[in-house]
């Protein structure tokens, strides 16, 4: 199979310099802010995947049938862009096609490189490919790690931008409607008060909290939602609080999902030591593991499709629910 040298052939890469961003006109300001990574993603997505990369990779080898079907049905010779390729398990899946992958995690990209894949480090909301470069693109289990609606929409726009007219884009995300409810009970729901931390001051959804609080400094007892004080005013407040809590559970979409890195893993002595020292990870002596929290925004039915409403050069050709994931296939129309 022909190899595309990403190290020397830069004809497909678009360069974005910091000086260009600094001199951008006011109209571009919102676009630049969307590309600025919120702290919650840096700490609880980027840092975590770099720390757990080898262990994570060892668990990621099975191909989802729906993704395999999509890749297998593409025309021979197609160039497929895998945005958020992880350990590269889909790269080269269809031997009649060419693959280029990218991921925000240098540690995962190194694993891909060691396997001989064509990859580079890149952000899903700012893909480094020229417009119309690929014949198809996939984004598998990536968008749920983006912490704002604007960033999730921007990632979809980027996937559409980098494929040719008529090109297909497959996107999968974790769903609110998880088939294994016991699994969800192991997740930590993030309360509304966290929103300001990752969206920034002035967010219409944000509630005011002390600027001195950080995500890891808030006691675990508060992470489940309502504080105890506002539920003890009177009987009427208790009823109202109970109803509010029930509504929050049903509508909950922001979570920390734990990853247990066993003590015997070699990487525990590296990044994990620093994470434990700084409070970004904890020890679970019962399970013999260092526990990392990964940020997830799980998607409700119709939410993924709604993010495409403002994208005028793409149409939805298929959408479906598969293995606790919402999935969508887009076609670029112009």
TrEMBL record:
Species lineage: Eukaryota, Viridiplantae, Streptophyta, Embryophyta, Tracheophyta
Name listed for the protein in its UniProt record: S-adenosylmethionine-dependent methyltransferase, putative
GO molecular function: S-adenosylmethionine-dependent methyltransferase activity; tRNA (5-carboxymethyluridine(34)-5-O)-methyltransferase activity; tRNA binding
GO cellular component, one term: nucleus
Domain called Methyltransferase type: residue spans: 81-171
InterPro entries in alphabetical order: AlkB_tRNA_MeTrf/Diox, Methyltransf_11, SAM-dependent_MTases_sf
Sequence segments annotated as region (Disordered): 1-23, 200-231
A GO BP annotation: tRNA methylation
This protein's UniProt keywords: Methyltransferase, Transferase
Record's keyword annotation contains Magnesium: no
The keyword Heme appears for this protein: no
Species: Medicago truncatula
